[in-house]
Amino acid sequence: MFQGWENFFMLCGTAAATLIGLLFVVITLGTNLAPSQAAPGVHVFVTPTLAHFSGVLFVTLIVLAPWGSQWAAASVLSLSGLASLSHAIWVL
Q1: What are the domain boundaries of the chain?
Q2: What is the mean pLDDT of the chain?
């Protein structure tokens, strides 16, 4: 039932741990610069960084998943692209 999913779960766990570690380092370094003034700047920097890293992780996991057909993966990636485009337009 779960044949072909070994690489998917391995990459998912590794990438999620790396993302959490990277954000922890960025937040730690950012707040140690000037604790009273850095908190709003770190919050403004970390939120889009987390969103972009999560988006890349999502696309990578969709491509790596062993889908039954390519149409399922293509439709999920298309919906993800449309959601990202609408978010970018909303932000602008």
Answers
A1: 6-91
A2: 80
